[in-house]
Structures are given as structure tokens and as C-alpha cells.
Design a protein that fits this description.
single chain; 193 residues; alpha+beta; Barwin-like endoglucanases; 2 domains; 6-stranded mixed beta barrel; 4-stranded antiparallel beta sheet; 2 helices; 10 strands; 33% strand
Length: 193
Amino acid sequence: MNTKINSYLLVLMTFALLAFSSGNPQQKEKPKDKNKEKTTPAKDSKDPKEIKDPKDKTKTVATAKTDTVVVKEIPVVKETDTLQIDPNSKLKIYKKNAHASYYHHKFNGRRTASGKRFDNNKYTAAHKKLPFGTLVKVTNEANGKFVIVEITDRGPFSKVREIDLTKRAFMDIVSNKNSGSVIVKIEVVEEPK
């Protein structure tokens, strides 16, 4: 019983080490071979055990043998959900010197005025008047950084602020990550006809 627990702990620790080491941006990325396997010595393993992926019954995620643990490399999928616009699109200035802020995390998962679920990790925004689905380029006037966001909600409900961005979009354009608002230029993206 004790040796089984040790072998399972070793497999879990190996996965944790692989997960942390694959996320290091300073390491050089090498092309990954799906069939390539890494081996590390295991402690006191006597019975071969297989841990299978519950979603895919044909793949073996890790195999513990008598003296080695074989771990297949799992490719990391990076989510790229930045909004893209057509290069032929025209930008129409909506407002300069506008105050932008960001949503509080407590709104995550709630429905927006457009009916979509709010996600603070997406590139969306709230505006008082612009139609839902409008793509807007929001540029920080201090440093020139910008993001493209989609209007999915109404607000902000303050006379001072013009637009509420998701936290991800807001943090992409600010230099000081501790700031709560920033002066921006808002441009409406007009798709080519």
C-alpha cells in the first residue's frame, strides 16, 4: 500500500515539474515530438501501473514501471482570443480624452446586457450608447498601446467614465498595473464594404 502511494506521488510530482518547466519563457522552445518520452527513476515501484486519460481511452498519459516512470510530453495549447480586424477597415474617432476603467472580478460569469456571459479574460467592453457587437479600438494616449474590444454590455454608470474594459484588455494597455482608470482615445472600427 505504501509503495503504491509513493509511486502515485512520484507521478504527480513529475507532472507538476513538467508543467512548471514548460511555462518558463526563458527556456528555448524545441520542436516537440509527440512520440518522444522522458524517463525518470521511480522509488520502490513493484507493480506496473497505467494512468489513462479519462477523455481518450486510447492514449496513455503516464506509465509507472518497476524502476522507471515514463511520461509522455503533453503539448500546451495557448489560447489566442485577441480580436482581429480587417486591414482594410477604417477607424472613425468616437472620442478623445475619454476615461476608461475595468470591470471588477465579481461580475465574472454574469450575463451582460447583450445576453452573453461576461468573462474578464476576453476582449470585451461596456459602453453607454454604442451598439452591441461594435468593434472598438481603445488606445492609451500616454503610451500608445491599444486593444480591439467588442461592445457586449451597457455602462459604465458614472458620468466621468466613458468605457469599461475587461481586466485583461485594460492591463494590456496600461503601463502602471496598479491604476484603476486611464485616459484613452476611442475609435469605432468600420468594416470595408
